[in-house]
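G., the chain you wanted modeled:
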Amino acid sequence: MHMYTEHFNLNLLPFENVPDPLFFYDYGSRAHIRKQIYGALQNSRGLIVVIGPIGSGKTTLSQMIKFDFSESIKLIWMGEPPANSANLYLFLAQELGIQPSSPEKTFVMRDIRNALLKINAEGKKCLVIMDESHLMSDDVINGIRLLNNLEEGSIKLIQLLLLGQEELMEKINSPEMEPFKQRIATLESLGKMNVDTMIRYVTHRLQVAGGTPDLISETGWEALSIAFNTGGTPRTINSLCDKSFSVAFEREKPAVDARDVYEATQRMRLTTDVFHYICLLNTKEREKELALEREKQKEQEAKNQESQPTTDKPVPKTANKPVPETAAELPPFSQKKEPKSGEMVYEIPDFSRMRSSLNGSYSTNRDDLNMPVILLSVSIITLALSVLFFCQRSEATGFMDCLTDLFNTVVGNP
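Predicted structure as tokens:
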């Protein structure tokens, strides 16, 4: 038993990727397909085709069909198609326990027919299940068609169940395969599971294994839903859930959460949007922490205010007192404590008094600037007279020429 089964109190591993009929999800489209196949086999309708992507549960479905007819069926299992129709007939002959009198197809088919008649006379059926049937050659497909023609009255002597990926449908739809397509009694397709089906599927497997949905936390379910928002096959869902439980076990958690699912996606190299969900969770957790800190600070401040002693002090009446001359130096807002309530009240400043004080200061500073202004004016006049005197002594014909000569004289140019 795997070590995380004990940690989570499970009786079985819930997410093994093996075709175990015990874990078959007999709901929704899969239950419908199972009933359709069961009815076709029960009525000896012949050729049945089931198509689905890799890991969609085709093999598990075939095992469930085998379980349904365990006592009344002669099962012949083929893991993959043979190379040609001749090998197909020889393989069936050996599985039926007969030695063909000749390797020619005609004689082999005759011996197979006789063996099938004997099985049907015993009240049983012969079911041939061929997996990976999308790999069949055209010759094998034609051989399947000829086997389907083996009949006794209205009863098909052999039942054929073909399991394959979507490529098989492309072959069936080709014009040259029209005779084969017309002989298909039941054609079903196993698709990916949407989010709702995935949740019910995972819950089903947990319950079969002896667990409950609580083994996956709310954030864990959300992360799984995000991982398979475009659909998922049972094989991929099993793999991700199995690795998520392994991660949670390594971290000694009582349930799988979003971070365990994200770690599992990283180990499987799955491209999902779970990372963005983790970032969102981290942001929400930080916001909660900050909110708790603010609440604690408010509670502490309230306790500090309650612990400080309050004394009532008489406040002198100031209604008739003149305002001191230094009132302009006070800050814009002054605080006054009411004698009864103890609350801080902000008084509106006297802007007219502040403005008159500033005007007085400005007048004083303006008187101090008179002397520098006089000296600056005298300097400007002296400079202008010096320039005029130089222009009269120079041989310049105009004012601009005079300024040019003055500049050259100053910088030392001849």
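The chain has four domains: 43-189, 195-281, 325-368, 381-414.

Shout if anything looks off.
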